[in-house]
Design goal:
This protein is α+β, with helices and mostly antiparallel strands. It is built from four helices and seven strands. Strand 2 (43-48) and strand 3 form a beta hairpin. It is globular and about 50 Å long.
């Protein structure tokens, strides 16, 4: 049994069991607090009946005009709680916040091109690859990312998910 609730600042002291996964992008405390203060509806956590954090999603709304969209900055599930549908539940919430509360055209996210499990999961959730971003992930494990998107009801003609034919560089992204 689990509950899904809004992430709160004290959760920062107890989410290491989720964040220590090697494929999870981690942020500074200031970044988490910024998301929490500016986009609280996009920051959700799943908690077990014994109070242990199981998963979280962190996102925001950004863009202008037909590029107004919800963005998934981080989605991660603790290894102990995978394959329980938590990722889908959290994505559903972020999509609802993007659609119903923010009237976005689409939701997007970035995923490592080598993370086949995550790519398949997002495809099962209705996302498709919009474009490849060269060297999106920097550092010792530099890697390309796929920008994956899912159109929301406001994008009646699904223009936001028509794939680009060529890769882009991080500095070419409209929103970071």
């Amino acid at each position: 049994m689990s509950i899904v609730r809004r992430f709160v600042a004290r959760d920062l002291f107890s989410f290491n069991n989720i964040n220590l996964d090697p494929l999870t992008e981690t942020y500074s405390i200031q970044s988490y607090l910024q998301y929490l203060s500016i986009w609280p509806d996009f920051f959700t956590v799943a908690e077990s009946s014994n109070g242990k954090l199981m998963a979280y999603i962190m996102g925001k709304a950004e863009g202008e005009g037909e590029l107004w969209h919800g963005h998934v900055s981080a989605l991660t599930v603790s290894p102990d709680y995978r394959r329980m549908g938590l990722a889908r539940d959290l994505m559903d919430i972020l999509e609802q916040v993007s659609d119903k509360m923010n009237d976005c055209y689409f939701v997007d996210l970035f995923v490592r091109t080598s993370n086949a499990v995550a790519i398949k999961m997002y495809e099962q959730f209705g996302y498709s690859v919009y474009r490849r971003v060269l060297e999106y992930y920097s550092g010792p494990d530099s890697e390309d990312a796929f920008d994956m998107r899912k159109a929301l009801p406001r994008d009646v003609h699904k223009k936001s998910i028509i794939p680009l034919k060529h890769p882009v560089r991080p500095e070419d992204l409209e929103w970071h």
